[in-house]
Amino acid sequence: MNKLIAIVNVVAWSGFWAFGYIALTAQDLSDHQLITASLLAFAGFIMGIVAYLRLVRAAEASGYAKKTNQLDTAARNRAQSEGGM
To answer: Please, what is the end-to-end C-alpha distance for the chain in angstroms?
Structure first.
């Protein structure tokens, strides 16, 4: 499943860059074509971010990547109640 998400990530970011480049640099596009290229670039951007975050979560869960340095809820509430900044 992780390989499928990685492939989706690469394809999504490729679509973002390709259609974003077309939307920004093409000279002779109609309004319809420009909107379509912009929407496809936006869809690639959103899908790329979602796929990347899923890959990060899977890497942390499998032990491949070090877990983030966040406090759990109880520790965070205890630290805030003790005073801080």
So the answer is: 43
